[in-house]
From TrEMBL:
Signal peptide: none annotated. Its EC number is 6.3.5.2. Residues 2-200 form the GMPS ATP-PPase domain. This is GMP synthase [glutamine-hydrolyzing]. ATP binds at S29, G30, G31, V32, D33, S34, S35. The keyword Transmembrane does not apply.
């Protein structure tokens, strides 16, 4: 009989057997998969695990705190936080091409993680118990998809922690590789992973960096972060989180339009709401969010985010539109 409790017991046993006394490393992204994988390994081998969280500055409001505080509190993991915000901003300065952005973010991520991994190996490892394993939150559909070779998945270069250099020779532990997403969520709840993380909607590795159309800078990130937080808050308040697959909010940073507020003319930026309904992100339809919810989001964003004077709705299915704009 499938119960999350049985699954946890089985996987914990398997991880213990696989790892023995070795030390293990995990890159935490704040997403469901890496969080549940980390919590599972933590349950299995406790203090032998160190998690690394790279704050690249492209996160949404509250996300770093959820990992740094709530997740650590709930699971007790040993967490190394790397503040790489300046470094990512510097690397992205002036870059507008979507694939170039993705490539830069992916490369920087690997470099920062690599350095953190070396530091952990140095600080936490010892001769007898070297850091030998890297946890990955690979799910069953990922296993199937990557076996499928080329296809729709390669339209954009997706970024996960892969491609680590040869001198960091880790073997992979993929404790979730037999599970589907809904099973991972049940396992996460069983392990006490905070609900905000367990029920988190998909969020791309390159984060807000690919939701600013135009060059990424700190000011634009701050604008988008506020608009995004409002949209998420209202969708949650309306009880739509589980009906909607995700709702990217996109800042058209190089576009301006004329507006009016009070007696004054404004010349601000539009943001796009991109709510989608989907089963697996391979295809999607635009989600029919009730008009009153859209109205509230629009009013709040234009009232509360000074630089934004227009909110528009993306009503394109996938295909032809992808879910993200870049
Ligand atoms: P697209 O835009 O290709 O997105 O329709 C499909 C799904 O994948 C997410 N996405 C990513 N996830 N790294 C990720 O981990 C990425 O580079 C990436 N790019 C897109 C997107 O949010 C959607 O759920």
């Amino acid at each position: 009989e499938w119960t999350p409790g049985h699954v946890v017991d089985d996987l914990v046993g398997a991880i213990r057997e696989q790892v023995g006394e070795d030390r293990v490393l995990c890159a935490l992204s704040g997403g469901v998969d890496s969080s549940v994988a980390a919590a599972l390994v933590q349950k299995a081998i406790g203090a032998q695990l160190t998690c690394v969280f790279v704050d690249h500055g492209l996160l949404r409001e509250g996300e770093a705190e959820q990992v740094e505080q709530d997740f650590v509190e709930a699971t007790g993991v040993d967490l190394v936080i790397v503040d790489a915000r300046e470094r990512f901003l510097a690397a992205l300065a002036g870059v507008t091409d979507p694939e170039t952005k993705r490539k830069i973010i992916g490369e920087q991520f690997i470099r920062v993680f690599e350095q953190a991994a070396r530091d952990v190996v140095h600080d936490r490892g010892d001769e007898e118990h070297p850091v030998k394993w890297l946890v990955q939150g690979t799910l069953y559909p990922d296993v199937v998809e990557s076996g499928g070779g080329e296809g729709a998945a390669n339209i954009k270069s997706h970024h996960n922690v892969g491609g680590l250099p040869d001198d960091l020779q880790f073997s992979l532990i993929e404790p979730l590789r037999t599970l589907f997403k809904d099973e991972v969520r049940q396992v996460g709840l069983e392990l006490g992973v905070p609900e905000v993380i367990v029920w988190r909607q998909p969020f791309p590795g390159p984060g807000l960096g690919i939701r600013i159309i135009g060059a990424v800078d700190a000011e634009r990130l701050a604008i988008l972060r506020r608009a995004d937080a409002i949209a998420r808050e209202e969708l949650t308040r309306a009880g739509l989180d589980r009906d909607i697959w995700q709702c990217p909010v996109v800042l058209l940073a190089d576009v301006r339009s004329v507006g009016v507020q009070g007696d004054g003319r404004t010349y601000g930026h539009p943001v796009v709401l991109r709510p989608v309904a989907s089963e697996d992100a391979m295809t999607a339809d635009w989600a029919r969010v009730p008009y009153d919810v859209l109205a509230t989001i629009s009013t709040r964003i234009t009232n509360e985010v000074e630089e934004v004077n227009r909110v528009v709705l993306d009503v394109t299915s996938k295909p032809p539109g992808t879910i993200e704009w870049e």
